[in-house]
Amino acid sequence: MAKTKQSSPNLPGINAAIIMDGNGRWAKKNALNVTSGHQRGVDVVRKIVESAAKAQLESLSLYAFSTENWSRPKKEILGIKKLIINAIDSQVPELINQEVRLNFFGDYSSFGDEIIRAIHQAEKITAFKKPKLKLNIALGYGGRKDIIEATKLIAKDIKSEKISVDDISHETIFKYLQAPINELDLLIRTGGDHRISNFLLYHLAYTEIQFSDTLWPDFTDEEFIKCLEEFSKTERRFGNRTI
Ligand code: IPE
Ligand code: IPE
Ligand code: MG
């Protein structure tokens, strides 16, 4: 019998994120170099973004490179840099068609001027006022660094009397953090490990977290839709008594 294509649940207003882990192990398993694993990872991103837009998510934030990943071999980092530049080049026209707004966050300056220019240009030409999906890419991002930098900015603004100590609220902190989201509803981590690896620390307070053993290059839109379905069935209590 022919396989029927799953229809994705509609989740307007939902902010999801993915820790896309497992490229290296996938490459090793397939006797390929690590850059080929990252390349396959980029190919998967395209399909998942399409599914996220179909599901009407508000935003999808993808962890592409962490502050800790700078300690990887130079060759791997150079490979990732080239892949990102190529991916921007080849995927931005599709993002424009789908009315997806692209936004990078993190400190990616060490990747060099070429990538900075490509990112700024891509952000400019996808800056839809009412995008169908906000696609946020964490590049050179670390949750701790984000909190540290936000704290410094708040301290400076208090010192210059732009804000007062009493202005510091939950919302103020979101405003000062670099990650372009507030509440995070769903986080998926592929690759079998059960950790956060310094991703969106402040935003994770009430996030539903799902772990998949699938290595990121093997992750499919079908599995992504299953994650969204499971999320939509979850009762979120936020500390309340509901029975
Ligand atoms: C995730 O895949 C991508 C990045 C961290 C850049 P990995 O490269 O961490 O893959 P594994 O965990 O070694 O399999
Ligand atoms: C998390 O994966 C970072 C990204 C997916 C970009 P890592 O492979 O860097 O995390 P650890 O080292 O397993 O914690
Ligand atoms: Mg990893």
UniProtKB/TrEMBL annotation:
Cited Gene3D superfamilies: Decaprenyl diphosphate synthase-like
UniProt cofactor(s): Mg(2+)
UniProt-annotated binding residues for substrate: 22-26, 38, 66-68, 70, 72, 189, 195-197
Keywords: Cell shape, Cell wall biogenesis/degradation, Magnesium, Metal-binding, Peptidoglycan synthesis, Transferase
Active site (UniProt): D21, N69
Assigned EC number: 2.5.1.31
The record's free-text note on cofactor binding: Binds 2 magnesium ions per subunit.
Catalytic activity: 8 isopentenyl diphosphate + (2E,6E)-farnesyl diphosphate = di-trans,octa-cis-undecaprenyl diphosphate + 8 diphosphate
GO-annotated biological processes: cell wall organization; peptidoglycan biosynthetic process; polyprenol biosynthetic process; regulation of cell shape
Function, in words: Catalyzes the sequential condensation of isopentenyl diphosphate (IPP) with (2E,6E)-farnesyl diphosphate (E,E-FPP) to yield (2Z,6Z,10Z,14Z,18Z,22Z,26Z,30Z,34E,38E)-undecaprenyl diphosphate (di-trans,octa-cis-UPP). UPP is the precursor of glycosyl carrier lipid in the biosynthesis of bacterial cell wall polysaccharide components such as peptidoglycan and lipopolysaccharide.
Protein name: Ditrans,polycis-undecaprenyl-diphosphate synthase ((2E,6E)-farnesyl-diphosphate specific)
Organism: SAR86 cluster bacterium
